[in-house]
Design goal:
Blueprint: E1 28-32, E2 46-53, E3 59-66, E4 77-80, H1 90-97, E5 100-102, E6 114-116, E7 126-130, E8 140-141, E9 149-150, H2 151-169, H3 184-197, H4 220-228, H5 242-247, H6 250-255, E10 275-276, H7 283-291, E11 296-301, H8 309-319, E12 323-332, E13 335-343, E14 347-352, H9 359-362, H10 364-375
Parallel strand pairs: 4-7, 9-10, 11-14
Antiparallel strand pairs: 1-2, 2-3, 3-7, 3-8, 5-6, 12-13, 13-14
Length: 380
């Protein structure tokens, strides 16, 4: 089934609520006015905290909330959950669409520097960056039972989180594991394919393949030593190391209101999450939401080999919606920035030319323009 071709965690889900007051208050929250590494007070409203969900609130979900820098009383509110599952939403905040980012310098052992991002989506919307599922980032469980979750529980917990926040504010057969051992021709073809793509950077096929250590648990000094042994040529994954030096500092955790003793070694993308996938097809859920009148934006970087845009297009085609704005280019500064098509269910699909797996990380200016037009109900 085509729906099984897509890892649905990597489809960014937007919860858009118009005319919402976004002075969020939650179970445990506090404003952040200064952050180590950023010079001076933050010129935007940042709040972090925990919201308890599930039975007895045994699941404590950590969030970063940035208020719209435009008109927070009227601008939409968006929920951002990074994929994986198991990757902290700070990935979206610092590397993709947030108000601040690390200065792009080769790390020399000094404390990482934060600078403002000119392409932050918070210029048009208030955004909650949520660490979900439980065990991701700084989200934690109070009991062993609560530490395990599934796809459906994730959705339920996200819904409960939003409900609690707003209460205060208003199987593909090309996969090797499914191929029968007796299908020798298929297995040989698959092996040939893997041989052809060996050494390609799957997140962006045109970028250099770099050995990445950003997911490994290492003490800061050992991480630095490992980092200094890699090639001096630029690797995008090198930048992911900066968040470890930064977020594991006591001063940073204090500024972000992290509860002491809950998370010892913070990991940006946790691979050993106590999580079970139970949902293989999200089409019925998408259809249900679109039938209720929700607008949606689905976008893909056209150089992503992890979730290729062709698979996204096949998933969209299988929804069988009528096309109201046929396939065409969309432009920025007179240049083609990608291609787009719109459908009768108020869904807009767009590719980002030159974009990788996390498109705003590779093409921030283009994705900024794409989101600004879509959130303003303008055609791309």
């Amino acid at each position: 089934m085509i729906g099984k071709m897509i890892n649905w965690f990597l489809i960014i889900t937007f919860f858009i609520c118009s005319h919402v007051s976004t002075s969020t208050s939650a179970n445990s929250a506090g404003r952040v006015e200064y952050l180590p590494g950023f010079q001076g007070p933050l010129p935007f409203y940042l709040e972090t905290g925990y919201v308890g969900v599930d039975e007895n609130e045994d699941v404590q979900l950590f969030y970063y909330f940035i208020r719209s820098e435009s008109d927070p009383e009227l601008d939409p509110l968006m929920l951002w959950i990074t994929g994986g599952p198991g990757c902290s939403s700070i990935s979206g905040l610092l590397y993709e669409i947030g108000s601040i980012k690390f200065e792009a310098l080769y790390y020399d052992g000094s404390f990482p520097t934060l600078i403002l991002s000119p392409n932050s989506w918070t210029k048009m919307a208030s955004i909650i960056f949520l660490d979900l599922p439980v065990g991701t980032g700084f989200s934690y469980a109070r009991t062993t039972r609560a530490s395990h979750s599934t796809d459906i529980q994730l959705c339920d917990q996200a819904y409960e989180f939003m409900r609690k926040s707003l209460f205060h504010t208003c199987r593909g057969e090309y996969r090797s594991e499914y191929i029968s051992t007796s299908n020798l021709v298929c297995r040989q073809t698959l092996e040939l394919y893997h041989e052809c793509v060996d050494g390609i950077e799957t997140a962006h096929v045109l970028e250099p393949r770099c050995d990445s250590i950003f997911q490994i648990k290492l003490p800061t000094q050992k991480l630095l030593n490992e980092h200094n042994r890699v090639s001096s040529s630029y690797c995008r994954t090198d930048g992911y190391n900066l968040v470890y030096y930064w977020i594991n500092e006591a001063s940073v955790r204090e500024a972000l209101h992290i509860r002491k003793g809950t998370i010892t070694d913070w990991i940006r993308c946790k691979s050993d999450l106590n999580f079970t996938k139970t949902l293989s097809d999200v089409r019925p859920y998408h259809l249900n939401l679109s039938n209720k009148g929700y607008r949606s934006l689905v976008y893909s970087g056209d150089h992503d080999m992890i979730i290729p845009y062709q698979s996204t297009e096949a998933w969209i085609k299988d929804l069988n919606y009528s096309v109201i704005d046929r396939w065409r280019s969309w432009k920025l500064n007179g240049q083609i920035a990608g291609y787009t098509e719109s459908y009768s269910n108020m869904m807009t699909y767009a590719t980002v030319k030159g974009g990788g797996h996390t498109a705003p990380e590779y093409k921030p200016e283009e994705c900024f323009a794409m989101f600004k037009r879509w959130i303003s109900n303008q055609p791309l």
